[in-house]
Design goal:
Helix content: 25-40%
Shape: globular
Largest sheet: 5 strands, mixed
Order of helices and strands: HEEEHEHEHEHEH
Structural class: alpha/beta
Number of strands: 7
Radius of gyration: 15 Å
Oligomer: single chain
Strand order of the largest sheet: 2-1-5-6-7
């Protein structure tokens, strides 16, 4: 097994801890061929989990049209959690690679670029739903000094991870 597949499989394992009614995502940050941080998506530490009603946006999707309400969502993305954990532990991320089970959103990509993550490897694609945002998103991804690459490995739990559900391990 090559290193990219190895690290993506670890991101798949990390994803199992995700606690979100939306997609479930796992992330692994690697620097100098060593895992330095991991993250999965769920609510902010100390708050009830998303699947326990902790996020109003996730608990009441009928109140928020698709792509809206992120400013009131208390969920933290897997990539953000991995970056924030590294920061809390004093781990520099310059030159690191991010392995994530879902292509990172615009905000996570900005955070990765800002901490100088060099490359992004993702399993499932994500595309912004607005034309202007897509243009800026593509420009942002093009600014990474390393690769932004889709890793093509089997995902036996893709249906569970990529679909909105109402209870954990549905």
């Amino acid at each position: 097994m090559n290193y990219n597949d190895y690290y993506m499989n670890i991101a798949l394992a990390v994803r199992e801890r995700a606690n979100c009614k939306g997609r479930r995502v796992g992330a692994v940050i690697v620097r100098d061929n060593r895992i330095v941080s991991t993250g999965y998506n769920g609510t902010v530490e100390g708050m009830p989990n998303c699947l326990d009603g902790g996020c109003h946006r996730c608990a009441n999707p009928e109140e928020y049209p698709a792509g809206s309400g992120y400013d009131v969502c208390v969920c933290v993305h897997a990539e953000q959690n991995a970056i924030l954990t590294a920061a809390r532990l004093g781990i520099a991320l310059e030159g690191a690679s991010m392995y994530t089970t879902l292509k990172p959103c615009f905000n996570c990509s900005k955070a990765m670029r800002q901490v100088k993550i060099e490359s992004i490897f993702f399993l499932h694609d994500w595309v912004p739903n607005q034309a202007l945002l897509k243009s800026q998103y593509d420009s942002l991804l093009g600014s990474f000094p390393g690769e932004v690459t889709n890793i093509d490995i089997p995902d036996p739990r893709a249906d569970w991870a990529m679909n909105k559900v109402t209870k954990l391990n549905a």
